């Protein structure tokens, strides 16, 4: 997938970080340092997922996303809500 292609808009300067201090049963991911326009771009991605326009977005690959310490966050559309779960060291998925 091409970087930044999911919503057709640029997301810049947004950081994603896995917080090691969270419980294994409830991994914590922090998204921070973004502007209102960047939050709107993230909202567009979420709406496209919800409507079925796209099925999966590796958020860490989107243009302007800075993944702290190699954190990878994949947003995906599923038949049921599975929440956020860790798929491997530093790899997290969210619906």
Question: What is the compact description of this entry?
Answer:
With 95 residues, the chain is of the alpha/beta class. The protein has one helix at 36-51; strands spanning 14-23, 26-32, 56-58, 65-67, 72-76, 85-88, 91-94.
Task: Give your account of this protein's structure.
The protein is α/β, with parallel strands linked by helices and 95 residues long. It has 1 helix and 7 strands; from the N terminus they run E-E-H-E-E-E-E-E. The longest helix is centred in the middle third of the chain and has 16 residues, at 36-51.
Question: Going across the major beta sheet, what is the strand order?
Answer: 3-5-7-6
Number of helices: 1
Structural Rg: 13 Å
Order of helices and strands: EEHEEEEE
Separation of termini? 18 Å
Anisotropy-based shape = globular
Low-pLDDT regions: none
Category from helices, strands and their pairing: alpha/beta
Main beta-sheet strand count, sense and barrel state: 4 strands, mixed
Average the pLDDT over all residues and give the rounded result: 79
In which range does the helix fraction lie?
Answer: 10-25%
Tell me what portion of residues adopts beta-strand conformation: 35-45%
